[in-house]
Amino acid sequence: MFQFLLSRLSFVFVLNALVKPLWVFGVDRVFQNRIGAEGYGAYFSLFSLSLILNFLLDFGMTSSNMRAVARQTVSKKMGFAQHLQVRALLLMAYMTILLLVGLLLNLSMFSLSLLAILGLNQVLNQNILFLRSHLSGNQKFGLDSIFSVLDKFLLVVFLGGCFLIYADFVPSVMQFAAAQTTVYLFVFALLLGGSKHSLKGILKPLKRSVVIEILKKSFPYALLSFLMVMYLRVDAVMLKIMLVDGDYWAGIYAHSYRIFDVLSMVGFLSASVLLPFFARKIKEGARLKKLLHQLGGSAIILALVVSAIGVWFAQDILALLYTEKVTEISLQTFQVLMLSLWAVAVFYVYSTFLTALGSLKTLNTIAALALGANIVLNAFLIPTYTSLGAAIASLISQSIAAIAFIVFAHKANK
After folding, report:
1. What is the distance of C-alpha 97 from the center of its chain?
2. Which of 59, 249, 300, 348 qualifies as a cystine partner to 222, CB 3.0-4.6 A?
3. Is the CB of residue 54 less than 8 Å from the CB of residue 212?
4. Contact present, 334 and 318 (Cβ < 8 Å)
5. Secondary structure tally for the chain: helices H, strands E
6. What are the Cα distances from residue 268, in Å, to 9, 29, 40, 261, 264?
7. 306-316 pLDDT per residue, tens
8. Which domain holds residue 134?
9. What's the number of domains the chain is made of?
10. Per-residue pLDDT tens digits for 56-79
11. Helices marked H in 61-172 — which ranges?
């Protein structure tokens, strides 16, 4: 079973390893360098805000649907078309709340406009993920993997080509966000066109009872999504709000976080394969204790090796990738974030198993405690240690969550 799963994961990793690093290091990094730490920091903090609230868009339906498809328990009255109709209602709620939060934070008109575009990107991206959940839920991992990188591939060709051809090409943050909107629209249209056979009944009036049933079923997943994204992304928003030069420090934090983020992508990709796999095997009554031990151990060892390399060569990595001078704080911020990789590896293996098992109450409790710890630590550490304080808060809170995930996953898998 481990060899079979490893072969599926290998294909996903190879395809993403070819495309996503090109996006992060060949396009996003170049954009960071050309626009500067402060300019990118303003973009990154608003992007993080749009990401924190995106649980309203999906409301846990992607994970819930993927698990249901894998277990072959999809209800006819709560099918594909009905989920899309509910998501249309959630779209309006998300955009309204996102802009209201922007007004409460006293953002400028330019920042509000940028936030609106970033919000639209989240709308499209979340719906792409939902459409892909049918592919992965049906174990079509190859096709799902292609669509998982298509948007980044097109952005690399378009924006990367512009950066290569024009040495002085410096798009505004608005243009950078709008380019992503265009690509997301294209990929969404392709996936929707391929799912037209499932759109039967899309124009029928949606019953209130169906809306309530879908939201009730998805709520535990939505809560988990919100809590997890909050404790992974709240750092950048708190840096912007708590410090006078918050955009600059958010930009410095983003330098390190983007590298951390791309390395964490390995875990995210694993989870997209593991969730439907675990869900189906659990329904079949398979014993997964040995498999979970093998996956968890392998993930932790790999993460520790990558962390050691990152910490040891931190100066060289930052100097190679960014034009901003590598200061002691930016160096330490990167090193501390690298130490958090083991916790991310644990999260994507063990929390995915608990999700497939349906242990949402346990997951939400752990995530809530981790979020509380993260916010309190950030509140104490950011004013004194700026981006380094945010990194330390992330390391501590993620480590607490990781240990809890391991304990409860093994307890549930006896």
Report:
1. 20
2. 59
3. no
4. yes
5. 18, 0
6. 11, 21, 24, 10, 7
7. 999 999 999 99
8. 2-412
9. 1
10. 776 666 666 655 555 554 444 455
11. 61-71, 80-104, 109-137, 141-155, 161-165
